[in-house]
């Protein structure tokens, strides 16, 4: 099987690259914007056909959530239109696509974990464009798997864990939102789940949710990060979302049910604290 991974320099793409060698039955083609402009239909088709691609894993996205509020055209192209180009190109070869999506497609008003069947209702440009990408992929290629995830972090790039480590060491006081609750996702765990789906002998197409087990607020997540690495000099205080206004509205509740992905694909889902501890060790933190 030949697999094209787009957005290969991002958090998830990098983690997929890290474990790709374990999948000897697969040949991977890793691209980021320097190698392939996924908004260029001609370039996408040439990459898919020229490399005889059987499966596309689209990790590329416009992820600057707040900037998207004033840069809607670019977010729409990258999140809504480019995935359709990839889906169509590989569909013409009889191939499949795994599209990575987000908790932002939901409104965040639920008080029970989101299942794949629950109604969407994005509250931001980012969420709307990602939802449009989902719909476009589903329409363009019946052989699709959409994996929604949330609160992604890793040793790579910019993410919440790295920011809280830095701020915890720079500041003596820090306010962190406590009325937004979700499930953090360690990108290395997500990479394993995505490749487990990619290499499954029997495919079930549709939408699946993946994040680590458990639920936590951003405040409690920060406290856990600091506790694990021994940051004690920073006084972390809980604040309300309205005390930290942002251009894009965040979902107040982003906890996923992982029952479907566990049942259908046999994916194991680690507890968020265990995965956080593993990531911090990889980052060279003294635990």
What attributes characterize this protein structure?
single chain, 287 residues, alpha/beta, Rossmann fold, six-stranded parallel β-sheet, three-stranded mixed β-sheet, 9 helices, 13 strands
Write a structural description.
There is one protein chain. The chain has helices at 11-19, 41-50, 72-91, 125-140, 160-170, 187-198, 218-229, 259-265, 272-282, and strands spanning 2-6, 27-30, 55-58, 96-102, 144-149, 152-153, 173-177, 181-182, 185-186, 206-209, 216-217, 235-239, 253-254. It is built from nine helices and 13 strands. The strands form four sheets. A six-stranded parallel sheet has the order 2-1-3-4-5-10, sandwiched between helices. It has a three-stranded mixed sheet with strand order 11-8-13. α2 runs parallel beside α3. The radius of gyration is 19 Å and the shape is globular. The chain starts with a strand and ends in a 5-residue tail after the last helix.
Quick structural gist:
By secondary structure, the protein is α/β, with parallel strands linked by helices. The protein has helices spanning 11-19, 41-50, 72-91, 125-140, 160-170, 187-198, 218-229, 259-265, 272-282; strands at 2-6, 27-30, 55-58, 96-102, 144-149, 152-153, 173-177, 181-182, 185-186, 206-209, 216-217, 235-239, 253-254.
Count of DSSP-assigned helices: 9
Main pleated-sheet profile: 6 strands, parallel
CATH class: Alpha Beta
In percent terms, what proportion of residues is strand?
15-25%
| Poorly predicted segments | none
C-alpha geometry: globular
Mean pLDDT: 97
CATH architecture: 3-Layer(aba) Sandwich
What is the count of distinct domains? 1
The CATH topology turns out to be: Rossmann fold
Strand order of the largest sheet: 2-1-3-4-5-10
The residue fraction in helices comes out at: 25-40%
What sequence of helices (H) and strands (E) makes up the elements? EHEHEHEHEEHEEEHEEHEEHH
Structural class assignment? alpha/beta
How many strands in all?
13
